[in-house]
Amino acid sequence: MTTDGGELTKCFGVLGDPVAHSRSPAMHAAAFAALGLPHRYLAFHVAPERLAEAVNGARALGFGGLNLTVPHKQAALALCDRLGPEARRIGAVNTLVFTGGAIVGHNTDGRGFAAAVREMSSGHVQQAMVLGSGGAARAVVDAIAGELLGPGGHVRWVSRDPAALAAGLPAGGPVVAVGWDAIGGGAAVDLLVNCTTVGMAHGPTDYPAPATALVAGLAPGARVVDIVYPRPAGGLLDRAEAAGARVQDGLEMLLWQGVFAEALWLGRSLAPEVVAAMRAALR
């Protein structure tokens, strides 16, 4: 379908399980409106066993691109004909571009996370702790180690299976995989990031370690990010804020990964006023 101005209407979307909570449709609709584009963006509930069908169906239907959320970011790697450097390095995909019949996988989560954290403070991170081991956690760890970490800084990557994470990490590097039983040890944390599904709708309500232990390990003035949104009442951010930390929910990361994803789809950067429209739609 084309508009009176000749612009071809394209469909975009996000695939997830669950996905009803997603604010991506409102955010991208605001961007398309600000750009004067007729495109549409929809959320699609796709079970893990139907992911390949959904992605190939979207390609066959002429979609402009897709986003992927829990639990599809790592599984989608096998569906891509080519990978961008960040997706290849991280081992997870959150943005698909359909071009020339090929599926090109990208990861904008890491860049989005780094941009969001810099809005809190531009200072380097010295001691970070990342909770969770999924696709989003991989992107966050990559961004901290590659963009945010100061000289001599370290990242403790917390997982139920730290041995599996450690197998993919370079020996002697700044990232160390640890179990949940190591929450209370080590240097004070100046950046804590929750990348688990704790607090998500229909997700778990408790961490494998007490939230009080997480907050107790924070350095004065620490930054705490929970990529879950909307912010769960009484959750990690409320506890951290009460302890004096600067906090941020997942909407800022969602915003910036969306900005970078849309730039890939459209082949151009987004102007500040478009980013402002996307932020207003999220909030």
From TrEMBL:
Broad EC category: oxidoreductase
Binding site for shikimate: S22, R23, S24, T69, N94, D109, Y229, Q257
Swiss-Prot/TrEMBL catalytic activity: shikimate + NADP(+) = 3-dehydroshikimate + NADPH + H(+)
Top-level lineage group: Bacteria
Pfam families: Shikimate_dh_N
Residues annotated to bind NADP(+): G132, S133, G134, G135, A136, I227, G250
Domain Shikimate dehydrogenase substrate binding N-terminal, first and last residues per copy: 14-96
Pathway(s) of this molecule: Metabolic intermediate biosynthesis; chorismate biosynthesis; chorismate from D-erythrose 4-phosphate and phosphoenolpyruvate: step 4/7
Active site feature: K73 (proton acceptor)
UniProt-listed Enzyme Commission number(s): 1.1.1.25
Keywords from the named record: Amino-acid biosynthesis, Aromatic amino acid biosynthesis, NADP, Oxidoreductase
Record's function text: Involved in the biosynthesis of the chorismate, which leads to the biosynthesis of aromatic amino acids. Catalyzes the reversible NADPH linked reduction of 3-dehydroshikimate (DHSA) to yield shikimate (SA).
Similarity comment: family membership: Belongs to the shikimate dehydrogenase family.
Subunit-level organization: Homodimer.
HAMAP family xref list: Shikimate_DH_AroE
Protein name: Shikimate dehydrogenase (NADP(+))
Gene field: aroE
